[in-house]
Amino acid sequence: MKLRRERINPVVPMNAMSDVAFLLLIFIMLVSLINYRREVKIDYPEAESAKRTSAEKNLEIWIDREGALYLDGLPAEAAAVENALGDLYRRAPDTRVHIIADRNTPFKEVSGVLGILQLLQYRVVSFVVAGE
User: Fold this and answer.
1) Total-model pTM
2) 32 is a domain residue
3) Mean pLDDT, the chain cut into blocks of 10 residues (132 residues total)
């Protein structure tokens, strides 16, 4: 006696695929709206001429009107800024440092950061001003 096997065609249910695609689309849209750059609210100074720099490979040092320092948007002390700059210079000496100071920041606070940069002999420095 010969046994006969029936072939069963496998079927993948496609009903839930549209739901998964829709949820994935919502997730991607929400994640893309998140701003990962931390900023300090300051009043930018103005300049007669300005040059654009690339947004890649830079470190931002923010100085608010009270003279508080922020390293990439996070509060930091002068010693922490000096250590971060020293480590950065050893790893990637071509990284640009952006100094972003409030218009009403006393110059002695900006001068302190410039002193750290001068001590470390950091040469790739930009001052960020109000753009057009």
Assistant:
1) 0.59
2) no
3) 73 78 89 70 65 70 86 86 86 84 85 87 76 51
